[in-house]
Every structure is written in structure tokens, then in C-alpha cells.
Specification:
This protein is 80% helix and 0% strand. The chain is built from 8 helices and no strands. By secondary structure, the protein is mainly α.
Length: 203
């Protein structure tokens, strides 16, 4: 059952990323960096997700002083494919400001929910999410603060590459960590019940 939750979480997460990109209001700093790299250098957004994942896996390994979490690359690979797939299947181009805001809001919420779902399974997280947890542990702060710090760092790099930075980016920096922090306890509670129910029904 956890494998189903894991895949479903990644699908919801990548749907959210695609919606924020298509909202034209600005994406998260990390996704803005991916789009900027795609536009400046080439390759798809999902391809850059995988490339940067390799770099982050090495960084995480150095911070934790342990072997590289290679399984995280598998998660990033699925995520990269998912982003490209949703961008292909949902060619949404909202033009009015309120439709853009709705698209972005749904996307940001989906990112928080999807991230909370797949992190619940405790399988290999996307390297950037693992970095969030590492910084939280090393600094003894909250997920909100560690996530916000990472967003600010990637915002700088996205800006240098002319990534899609806008009001949506600011909202993500301010609210992205808070949205994830909001979904985590509720997701754990609901999915615990789902796991218990599915386990008991198989007996």
C-alpha cells in the first residue's frame, strides 16, 4: 500500500509543479531554476530536475557525512518524467489574473499535499526534500524555516538565469514551507488509518 501512496504522492506533486509553471505567475525558486536552465541551455524541465538531483545528492552526502543516497535519484527520475508528462498532457495557458491565481493556488496546494504523501512512505525522497530535512536537523529548526532558506538560495540562481520569477515565486517562498508544514500532520493521520485498514482487510 505504501508503494501506491508513494507513486500517488509523486503524481500529485508533479501535477502541482506543472500547474505553477503554467500559471504564469512565477514558480518556486527551484522550479524557476529548472525552467531557466531549460530555456537558456536546452533539454526539458524534467531533464534538469534529474541533473540537479545528482548535484544535490552529492551535497546531501557531504552534509550528512555518509554514502550518497542513490535511491533519491530514482525518485527524482520519476518526478522529472512526471513534470514533463503533465506539461504535455495539460497545455493550460490561463490569461486572466484570477484564472492564473486559481491555477497557481491549486498547484501550490498539490505540491504541499503530494510532498507530504510521498515523504510519509519514508522511501527515498527527492534530494531537495532530503536537503530540507537535513537542514532542519542540523539547525534544529522547523520544516518551514529550513524550506524557506532553501527557497531563498535557489531564488538567487533562478534570477541569474531569467527563470519565471513573479508574485507566485514570492508566495511560494513565503507560503511553500508553511503549506508543507500544514499538510504533514493531517497526511500522517489519514494515511496511518489507510494503512491500518488495508492491512486488516488483507487478513
Amino acid at each position: 500500500m505504501k508503494y501506491v501512496i508513494y507513486v500517488l504522492g509523486l503524481l500529485i506533486l508533479t501535477l502541482g509543479i506543472a500547474l505553477t509553471i503554467q500559471s504564469n505567475l512565477g514558480t518556486s525558486p527551484f522550479d524557476a531554476l529548472l525552467v531557466g536552465l531549460s530555456q537558456k541551455i536546452g533539454l526539458t524541465v524534467g531533464s534538469w530536475e534529474i541533473i540537479l538531483a545528482i548535484i544535490l545528492i552529492i551535497l546531501n552526502s557531504l552534509l550528512k557525512k555518509q554514502r550518497p543516497e542513490v535511491l533519491g535519484l530514482g525518485t527524482a527520475f520519476i518526478t522529472g518524467i512526471g513534470i514533463d508528462l503533465w506539461l504535455f498532457l495539460l497545455p493550460i495557458t490561463p490569461e486572466l489574473w484570477y484564472s492564473q491565481l486559481i491555477c497557481f493556488t491549486i498547484g501550490l496546494s498539490a505540491i504541499g499535499l503530494g510532498t507530504a504523501m510521498y515523504l510519509y512512505t519514508n522511501f527515498a525522497p527527492i534530494p531537495i526534500d532530503r536537503l530540507t530535512l537535513i537542514i532542519q536537523e542540523l539547525t534544529n529548526t522547523t520544516i518551514f524555516l529550513s524550506r524557506t532558506f532553501i527557497y531563498i538560495v535557489f531564488l538567487f540562481f533562478a534570477f541569474t538565469l531569467d527563470g519565471p520569477i513573479g508574485v507566485g515565486t514570492l508566495l511560494t517562498v513565503c507560503l511553500g514551507g508553511l503549506v508543507l508544514h500544514f499538510f504533514m500532520p493531517y497526511t500522517d493521520k489519514v494515511l496511518n488509518r489507510v494503512i491500518i485498514y488495508s492491512t486488516s482487510s488483507l487478513k
